[in-house]
Design a protein that fits this description.
Layout (H helix, E strand, L loop, with lengths): L1 H7 L3 H16 L6 E8 L2 E8 L18 E2 L7 E5 L3 E3 L2 E3 L2 E8 L6 E7 L17 E22 L5 E19 L9 H4 L4 E7 L4 H13 L3 H13 L1 E8 L5 E3 L7 E9 L2 E8 L2 E3 L8 E6 L5 E7 L5 E9 L7
Antiparallel strand pairs: 1-2, 2-4, 3-7, 4-7, 5-6, 5-10, 7-8, 8-9, 9-10, 11-12, 11-19, 12-13, 13-14, 14-15, 15-16, 15-17, 17-18, 18-19
Length: 332
């Protein structure tokens, strides 16, 4: 009677539509919602796509997840990790591409295992074995104080050439070292550093006429020509003092009065050639091997550099350096 009355009032189609929509809405409530993120590390993009189940008072490892069996850290579809460029995982080479990520928990052990597979379409329930993997590595495991209710996979300790991939669920956490190869060596030997050690003065080279005219025109249009001329003249007159030394870590740096633990870093790019970067608390930082000024040291008759020229990305000479005296290796 009520349904018939509804039809009579013209509400029947509306009620049927709402009734049909209700189950669809309910199905969207996922107890293990899918999550994803991506992170750029020195030009390499690392991304993870995974389901995020919650503990909900359960015993996870040893109960929900059996010890000694590979399990994808998540739920439903396999957890997928992608690297846009070649990397290393726990020191092992991994080609650019997408992989399925699996973990084997071990009872009472501080070392679990992680596995990468080629198939990124599997669901979580197949019990894969080591033979199914492209790579199986040890994964340091620890029980931490912080309880992580919802499974979290994250990237931490990001550096110029490395990062750590963490999986944390409940109080269990594993870590995987990811290495980024920039194709660059940041250190030199004492023999390689010897020709460049010592005190130097660095002065700016006048800009090419076309560039100077263009910058003056821009300054005039903005009403700051006077300030521009004063700043340009000051830069030409400024003489910077550089003290190039070799740290015990093997980094060739300028100890030119920067903040503590912060140095200009000379990154070798060939015999006598360096690209300028920075060393922050013992680690290279703020460096792009495809950019930056190129410094060429010019050797004297005795093989010791006495002059240097610094050019920008377009090959335009920007600075000249002249040696004052030699220095030595110093520990930091």
């Amino acid at each position: 009677m009520r349904l018939r009355a509804a039809h009579m009032l013209g509400l029947g189609p509306l009620l049927l539509t709402l009734a049909a929509a209700a189950p669809t809405q309910a199905q969207r409530i996922d107890p293990s919602p899918r999550g994803s993120w991506e992170q750029n590390v020195s030009g390499t993009t690392i991304s993870v796509d995974y389901a995020r189940p919650s503990v909900r008072g359960r015993e996870i490892f040893g109960d929900q997840v059996a010890f000694g069996e590979f399990w994808t850290p998540g739920a439903n579809r396999v957890t997928k990790v992608r690297f846009s460029r070649d990397v290393t995982l726990q020191g092992h080479d991994v080609a650019a591409g997408a992989y399925g990520l699996w973990v084997e928990a071990s009872e009472g052990s501080d070392m679990w295992r992680a596995m990468l597979t080629a198939d990124t379409t599997l669901w979580h329930y197949p019990h894969l074995t080591e033979e199914d993997g492209l790579l199986v590595v040890d994964a340091p495991h620890e029980v931490v104080d912080l309880h992580q209710e919802t499974l979290e996979i994250s990237l931490d300790s990001i550096r110029l050439q490395s990062a750590q991939l963490h999986m944390h669920w409940g109080r269990d956490r594993i870590s995987l070292d990811v290495g980024i190869d920039l194709g660059v060596t940041f250190t030199v030997s004492p023999e390689e550093a010897a020709p460049y050690l010592g005190s130097w003065t660095r002065t700016m080279v006048p800009w090419p006429e076309e560039e100077l005219a263009r910058r003056r025109e821009q300054a005039e249009e903005s009403g700051s020509l006077e300030e521009f001329e004063e700043r340009y003249r000051s830069q030409l007159e400024d003489v910077a003092e550089w003290e190039i030394e070799l740290l015990e870590s093997g980094h060739l740096v300028d100890d030119g009065g920067m903040a503590p633990d912060f140095y200009t870093l000379f990154v070798p790019r060939g015999e006598g050639f360096f690209v300028a970067g920075y060393l922050f608390r013992g680690e290279p930082a703020f460096f792009d091997p495809t950019k930056g000024n190129l410094i060429e040291f010019l050797p004297g008759d005795d093989g010791v550099a006495s002059e240097a020229e610094e050019r920008d990305e377009d090959g335009v000479l920007r600075y000249r350096m002249t040696r004052a005296r030699k220095s030595s290796t110093r520990g930091r």
